[in-house]
Amino acid sequence: MNPARKAALRGGIDLGGTKIQTAVVDARGEVRGEARHPTPTSGGPEDVAEAMAAAMREAAESAGLATEDLVGIGVGSPGDADEKTGVVSAAKNLPGWEGSFPLAKKLKGELGAEVKVGNDVQVATEAEFELGAGREFSTLIGVFWGTGVGGGLIIDGKPWLGRGAAGEIGHMVVKRGGAKCPCGRKGCMEAYAGRSAMEAEARRQHEEGQKTDLFKLMRKHEKPRLTSGVWERALDHGDHLAEKLIERAIEALGTGIASACNLLDPEAVILGGGLGVRFGERLMEPLTKEMSKHLFVDERPPAVRVASLGDLGGAIGASLLFAR
Ligand SMILES: [Zn+2]
């Protein structure tokens, strides 16, 4: 590869609770190489960082170069990712990562390229804004509906990070004194719409005698938890409890998203995440209907679009940390 073309290639790493997705991305946002490894389930940040480095090396190899040739490598990380210092703290979905770890420094040592870290949901939102479903807009909210509910913000064409913790749309309060949220507070949108909160509620109601096939389907398909696919099958079967809990999630999402729209008046909402991508089109009508109940200016609601970059969106967005 000639050096001028090589110089434009960036690396991206999407660090998730179950998988590490890496990509080599060119200046036009095209993926030139990729690799996916499982996230270690034991050990600590050092082990996770080594698995990330291995996956990044593999993606670089598949693009025909070494990681040292990359302009830079961006990381979309869960937990509290400090863009200025490259330190990631309290990434509680990852093994032994309750404290702080200098992830950028460690990866730079392993991979021989500059490394920047950012919030996983924020970088995925930036990818949709630059290259995906949000391309035609300049102000948008990304809502990633999955295990939890994460958010990202683009205001006037630029990422809005606040003091580093902006975009936590999942913890907009939709009901004062309401259901307990995984964050420990009460009444957050995520307490009703997050996949893990929905699973906990399904389990509770099932144990109280409520009939449902959700857990039967989970075992049949050998899933460790109620995945978005399990929820979809249950809905297809007309499972009453699944319908009720999805409806409850949509009510919470509609309320929380509309409240955020009342504050920011964005042109668009981009709906991503495992549940968001799977159910976005199917539940678009009830979701926008629920939003319209709470929109202060309801004659021109924001466009609601399903994220379009799929599984690689996080890694592509991470690579964009070197294009800002
Ligand atoms: Zn919360």
What features would you describe in this structure?
This protein starts with a helix and ends in a 5-residue tail after the last helix. The protein has 324 residues and is of the alpha/beta class. The strands form three sheets. Strands 3-2-1-4-8 form a five-stranded mixed sheet. Strands 11-10-9-12-13 form a five-stranded mixed sheet, sandwiched between helices. The protein contains twelve helices and 13 strands. It has helices spanning 3-6, 45-62, 103-111, 120-131, 189-193, 195-207, 214-220, 228-236, 240-264, 274-279, 284-294, 313-319; strands at residues 10-15, 19-25, 31-38, 73-77, 80-81, 88-89, 100-101, 115-119, 140-145, 149-155, 158-159, 268-272, 303-306. It is globular. Helix 2 packs across helix 3, helix 4 crosses helix 12 (313-319) and helix 6 (195-207) packs antiparallel against helix 9 (240-264). The structure holds zinc ion. Residues 171, 181, 183, 185, 188, 190 line the site of zinc ion.
Distinctive features:
alpha/beta; 12 helices; 13 strands; 5-stranded mixed β-sheet; binds zinc ion; 324 residues
The unique ligands bound to this protein are: zinc ion
What general form does the structure show?
Answer: globular
Indicate the radius of gyration in whole angstroms: 20 Å
The helix content is: 25-40%
Number of helices: 12
Number of strands: 13
Listing every helix as H and every strand as E from the N terminus to the C terminus, the arrangement reads HEEEHEEEEHEHEEEHHHHHEHHEH
Residue stretches low in confidence (pLDDT < 50, at least 5 long) are: none
Strand-pairing-aware structural class: alpha/beta
- As laid out across the biggest beta sheet, the strand order is 3-2-1-4-8
> Which percent band covers the strand fraction?
15-25%
